[in-house]
Design a protein that fits this description.
mainly alpha; 434 Repressor (Amino-terminal Domain); 2 domains; 8 helices; 2 strands; about 50% helix
């Protein structure tokens, strides 16, 4: 298991000056299980991640991402793009992330809108780009936290 999740949870817990026992009381997850997660010895379920996220006041999707789970929010829009257009975009970009260069099948590749504000009924192939799930997650996080004007795809 990648230790990023555990490191993040430990950082947030200590930032809030909480012990493992404190987090156990708030989340309902045993302190020993939380300790194993922090040390990278246990992969938590989505339900456990949800409880920890609420207890630490952090974004559940961020914890899911760190644990290696797919992020549900990116799938919703992707499913609304016509399958034929998604297929053509995957072919056009050779199933490769246009930011980091990783290629399917080594990582899941998603077809996304270059401009997230384009109405779905006006989408053409030129409005689409392929990103790996990590780059798409990072992009969506920037847009959510800082606004679409900071989107690195729109500014290139």
């Amino acid at each position: 298991m990648d230790i990023k999740l555990g490191t993040f949870i430990r950082y947030r817990r200590k930032e809030q000056k909480r012990t493992l026992k404190d987090l156990e009381k708030i989340s309902g997850i045993s302190f020993s299980q939380i300790g194993k997660i922090e040390r990278g010895e246990h992969i938590p379920s989505k339900e456990t991640i949800s409880k920890i996220a609420k207890a630490l006041f952090c974004d559940e999707n961020e914890l899911l991402h760190l644990a290696g789970y797919p992020i549900p929010s990116s799938k919703k829009l992707n499913d609304k793009i016509e399958p034929d257009l998604r297929y053509l975009a995957l072919i056009k970009y050779n199933r490769t992330c246009q930011i980091c260069g990783v290629k399917a099948p080594s990582k899941e590749i998603e077809v996304v809108l270059v401009d997230p504000n384009v109405p779905l009924y006006k989408i053409t192939l030129d409005d689409l780009i392929t990103l790996c799930i990590d780059c798409n997650y990072s992009r969506n996080k920037i847009i959510k936290e800082q606004g679409v004007e900071y989107d690195f795809l729109k500014n290139n």
